């Protein structure tokens, strides 16, 4: 039986609680909820990519992709994504950004399934995304 391995890209700070940015076991990779923080700078607190939904969504997707790549996966391996928004009024804009982002990817497989829900996030954060990938 394969071991469970924590996945933490160099671009990410240590999580603020007892969890991993990603966990891989066998051919399954679960990416924890990622937010729109810019790549980590040693000695500095995490900084959001900007105040807009566009800036945060694009950075959040980049952060999910960093965990996927660190775990040996790509967008083609993603089976399910969950999007968490803080404002129901952001749904249409997020869909436009999300659709454009995945149109730019060189996907060999269909896009993943997706669920979108509304939640509370720390002040200033507008979106969080997690992903489940199956490798091979």
Characterization of the model:
The structure is a single chain. This protein has 136 residues and is of the alpha+beta class. The chain has two helices and six strands. A six-stranded mixed sheet has the order 1-2-3-6-4-5, covered by helices on one side. Helix 1 crosses helix 2. It starts with a strand and ends with a strand. The mean pLDDT is 94.
Mean pLDDT, all residues: 94
Structural class: alpha+beta
Number of helices: 2
**Biggest beta-sheet profile:** 6 strands, mixed
| Share of residues in strands | 25-35%
Low-confidence stretches: none
- What is the succession of H and E elements? EEEHEHEE
What order do the strands of the largest sheet run in, or round the barrel if closed? 1-2-3-6-4-5
Helical content stands at 10-25%
Shape: globular
User: How large is the radius of gyration?
Assistant: 14 Å
Calculate the terminal CA-CA distance, rounded to whole Å.
17 Å
Number of strands: 6
Describe the structure in brief.
Helix 1 (53-70) crosses helix 2. The protein is α+β, with helices and mostly antiparallel strands. The chain has helices at 53-70, 91-104, and strands at 4-7, 22-25, 28-34, 78-85, 113-118, 127-134.
Write out key terms for the chains shown.
27% strand; globular; alpha+beta; six-stranded mixed sheet; 136 residues
Helix-strand blueprint:
Layout lengths: L3 E4 L14 E4 L2 E7 L18 H18 L7 E8 L5 H14 L8 E6 L8 E8 L2
Parallel strand pairs: 4-5
Antiparallel strand pairs: 1-2, 2-3, 3-6, 4-6
